[in-house]
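re: ur question from yesterday

yeah so i grabbed the chain u mentioned. its 78 aa long if i counted rite. heres the sequnce exactly as i have it in my notes:
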Amino acid sequence: MGKLILILFVLLLLMCFCIYNWWERREKSKRLFEEEKKKINPLNTHTAWGIYAFAALLAILGIAAYEIYQLMLKIYTI
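ran it thru and got these structure tokens back, copy pasting raw so excuse formatting
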């Protein structure tokens, strides 16, 4: 159980980091000229950071749903 909580905590930190980078890149992108925007790596754009945050959220929800499912199975088998 402790390992699971640690994994969820790390995923939550990752999601917060991705949301911060998404917001920071979005604000930075508003101030860039078009030729500067073209030089940015597609994996480092604000859209990509938003997708990373969404993937981390899906992982957190998936793990939590699976653990709740396992808990419900144990309760029903008692």
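noticed a couple things. The mean pLDDT is 90. also Residues 12 and 49 are 15 Å apart (CA to CA).
anyway ttyl
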